[in-house]
Amino acid sequence: MLFRWRPSLRKAFARGVPVLCVDTRKKERLGHLPRRGSCYSTDVQFVYDRDYRHLATGVLVPHGVYDYHGNAGFITLGTSRETSACVCDAIALAWQEDRAEHYPHAQQILLTFDAGAANAARSLRFKEDLVALSRRFGRRLRVALYPPYTSKRHPIEHRLFCHVARRLSGVILDSHQTALEAVQRTHTQTDLTVTPRLLDTLYELGRNVLRHSSEMAQLRPVARNITVKPVVPMAYLSAQNARRKKRKNSS
To answer: Which domain holds residue 161?
Structure first.
């Protein structure tokens, strides 16, 4: 059982709250580069004998969102880099295009992450983007991060990524379309459905964080189990308070 040390999370898994497991696979290089594994082909494919970086024509950042209750996966193939903004955009794309219609009356969403890379527990950028994501959904987000060295127990690893990796084995990723078609052919005997999408957005590094905003005030500096609410921005609250004072003075 997941999260034995958190009874409240066990209740969320049991009572039908949408549970989205989120993680990122290793980057893949585009081009006629050699890859491990074997696959069927109708023609001979010529590749280089080495997979040097300068021989690649691009890069793919596979990001996965797995619906724990619906047994459905959503793979986003990014073309830039893995940042907290990229992670939240991939979650928003998966929810709006595929999962929202299955949970029309959901008041909150449980998100599970590995505590590392762009979604680290100490990352302020990640928490700031989570608040923006909660405001975009209009729902409360329950965020749970796995402790170090426990990512192998994440459901997305053995329910989605292993099957996607098997489908991509030996496939020459010479274009984005080839990668999308290979991921879309992923299927299992348990009726796993995988929806791939291309996220062609450029994400920059070194973004400044508003540490003293009202959104960040509700989050603890270091926490592996946090709740994010769709709060109102501080600028809007200050303007609203100024209007109220003005009305009182005029009356």
So the answer is: 7-39+46-250
